[in-house]
Amino acid sequence: KKLIEENYPLEKISEVEALRYFHTSAKINKIENIPQKNNILLVSDYSDKSNLNLLNAINNINKINLEYKFTLKEHPLKSLNINSFINIKKTYKNFFELRKNNHVAIVSNTTSAVIDLYLLDYKIISIMDNRSINLSPMRKSKNIIFLSNFDELPKILSDMKFNNYNFKNKKFFYLNKDLRLWKK
Predict the structure, then answer these.
(1) Could you give the CA distance from residue 41 to residue 97 in angstroms, rounded to a whole number?
(2) What is the Cα–Cα distance from 85 to 32, expressed in whole angstroms?
(3) What's the farthest any 2 CA atoms get from each other in the chain?
(4) Can you give the pLDDT of all 184 residues of the chain as single tens digits?
(5) From start to end of the chain, where are the E strands?
(6) Does the pTM exceed 0.70?
(7) Distance separating alpha carbons of residues 126 and 145, to the nearest angstrom
(8) Of 54, 58, 104, 101, the residue nearest 75 (C-alpha)
């Protein structure tokens, strides 16, 4: 749709299956546990600025003394110093494994990992920076909360609903197992 909006020649556009997301789509209906409300996944990015915003948002929650446990999934090329956070633990598990214990993910607005999280039906809060544009590949999604006022984060977390799984309605990519679009 975006290519067409930008007047890209229709004859050069081919709709094909998204090979990168086959591993995610195969696991969508296999999530068994309903995670606890107070377990939250943090997903960092390569950008120091985005990571600082993410940690500032978490600092805001910690000031209120809410009982949340955070699991940090770092960008593979960027390690974060979280020594001052006693309630954040790092992990190397994949998003599917993490989904068993986490229902909510708080991410930077520049990470492409938001697509994996969306497909696995995480409730997603994307932390914005008021001084830059929203670079999220999901920026137009109504299913993601884009947040620039960190003071609102504790209320958003306490108001979230945690039992409405919606795996079957994730029509974001073509994911035909027979790859008929690629073959065509």
Answers:
(1) 11
(2) 30
(3) 57
(4) 888 989 999 999 999 988 888 777 667 666 665 666 688 999 999 988 888 889 888 887 766 666 788 999 999 999 998 888 878 999 999 998 998 889 899 998 888 899 889 888 889 999 987 777 888 888 888 889 998 888 888 888 888 765 544 544 556 788 888 999 999 9
(5) 39-43, 69-73, 88-91, 104-108, 123-127, 144-147
(6) yes
(7) 6
(8) 54
